What does this fold into?
Amino acid sequence: MVLESILSSPHTLRSSSFRKQFTKNEFGSWSTLFQRHRYLLSALTLLAILCTVYLYFAITLGEASDPCFGLNGPQKASCHVEYLKAEARGKLKNLRHF
It folds into this structure.
């Protein structure tokens, strides 16, 4: 309601506050776009670097905690099966105590 009255007012439309503050040539250049969004681009760059470092350490350190780390092929598969069996037995023992 209030917005409609402001937009429909002829005096308000001629006001200099609603005019664009940049020229057509200024809007299209990459340097102007970079200058206007320098803080946002810097924050996104920092975020990308931090995410990359986090993923690097999550992947490299995450593999070492695997009980079957270093095994390949059928040995790794049988190791996982044995690990799951042992884990299931441990859960069953915990359930019997209740």
User: Anything to note?
Assistant: The helical segments are 2-8, 10-13, 24-28, 30-36, 38-64, 73-96.
